[in-house]
Structure formats: structure tokens, C-alpha cells
Short-chain dehydrogenase cctT (Vanrija pseudolonga), 302 residues
Amino acid sequence: MPPRVALITGCSEPSSLGAALALALHRQGVKVYATARRASTMSDLAAEGLNLIELDVTDKESIQAAVDVIEAQDGRLDILVNNAGVGGRAPLLDVDLDRLRALFEVNTFAPLAVTQAFADLLVEAGKTGRDAVVLNVGSGAVYGPPFSGSYGASKVRVGGGWDDAEPAQAALQTLSDTLRRELAPLRIRVITLELLMVSTAMLNRQKIYDLFRPTPSGYYANWPAIEADMRGDKQRTGGAARAADVAARLARALTSPSPPRKIWDGVPSWLFRWVLPLLPVSWLDWLLVKSARGVRLVQRPE
């Protein structure tokens, strides 16, 4: 059976989960195409012998160019990892809707666009005797922590539950769940990664959209102080999972004969998976407001 071929989006930072996963799969003997908008940001991966493709996941022509490369070189794609994403944090009253749409383009619509474009090559991989795999990197923060609604809405369900029984309206998780069922007859397995805190470029504030509208509401005039209190970079990063450890677990799952449908990882995945779904909504509201850094600094107008 030929070696697997994988493409991973969002490998632009050495500390990113995408870069760590690219290395983990490469070391398992998978032929990996690491992608980012600029190849120069992936020099560490090039030094390890990985294949690099410049790919803007929001640009149709850029996506097709990546498809053409793999079709010419390999004729199939065994593993597709939709990892590219950006963060954004702001009070929803102050979010600029055009900027929010741009965030959704990257976090929600791009994974579907990339999957559509590579569908034929994924189907070809299924003809080798083993199923192709698509991994969509979502967020496990399904309960709408204060000031994180823009990012969370682009990644997770609008609702209280974590499993498939919870009705939902939106975003990457629902797209991923539906794709899993629709693509199963084509021998394409779809995995959703419910990701919590991992020490990556996004957590370290290197890939965050400015979401504020030009004329904010005025209710959060002291936002810099609120955000600084929320951030606690050193404390947050120190308590997060290591990207290399998460990547090693994902690489094993992606190359398993029977990969899971959902994977929870990061810190504290156990809390979001097993504990919070059992709490009444009123308790959840109290807990999330009480524990959210910065909420206590919001100034009520006179």
C-alpha cells in the first residue's frame, strides 16, 4: 500500500498546531504538504524536508493551484487537515460586522471550500483500500465565554450540548458533522477536533483579528484594561497543552484504521466535555461570568 499523502492548512508559525502536526505526520512516513499564505513562514518545515505550498484558504484560485500540485504529483490525497484559523475578541455590541464576516470566511467557510476542492483526490485515496480522512479543527469552548462570541460562533455550535443530539444552527462543528455523514459512502472519514487551550501562535496573541467597529458603543471604554486583565499571557500559556503533544496524539488518530469521529484535546477538555454539559444554564451563566477575567472591570454607565 502506498504511503499516505497529507495536506495541512495553517502551518505559518513554528509554534502552530499545524506545523507541529505536519512534523508528527512526516516522522510517521506520511508525505506532507504544509501550507500557509507565504512559504517564507515555513522555513523550519522546509529544513525538515517537508513539501511546502503557498495557499490562501479564502482564495478560490489559490486553493485550485494547491489541488493541481497534488493531483500532478500524487493523484490522490489521503489526509486533509483544515487547521487554518484566526482569533478575535471583542464585546459583541462593539463588533464590526464586516470584520466578523472576514473571520467567518477563514474559520467557517474556508474549511468547506478546501474540502470541496479536494473531494476528487480524497475519493481517489479511498480506492487504495483505506479510507481518506478529513480533520476539521474546531473549538471545544461551546458555551460562549464573555468577549469570545465572535470566534466561538465561527467554530462551535450555538447551543448547550457537546454531542450530536443537541440541536444547533451553526458553524464548523455542524458542517463537520454533516460532512461526516454525507461523505461516509465515499470512503471519506471526517473528524472534528474540539480544541481547548494549546500553546500556539493564536493563544500567544499573534493571530488575532481587530474586530472593533469604528464607532463602538461606549459601554466598554476601558477595553484595554479589560483585555489586559483577561489575557494573562504567561499564566494562560503555562497552563496550556503543548502543541507537540497534541500533534502526536492527532497523528496517531489520523493514521489509525478506525479514527474517532470526535477528538477532545487541550486544557481543560475534560471540563467542557464531561462537566459543563450537566449544569443548568443558570449555573453556566454564573460560572462563566464569575470566572471570566476582565468582566469585573466593565463599567456600568451612570
Q: What stands out?
A: The longest strand covers residues 132-139. The chain has one domain: 5-297.
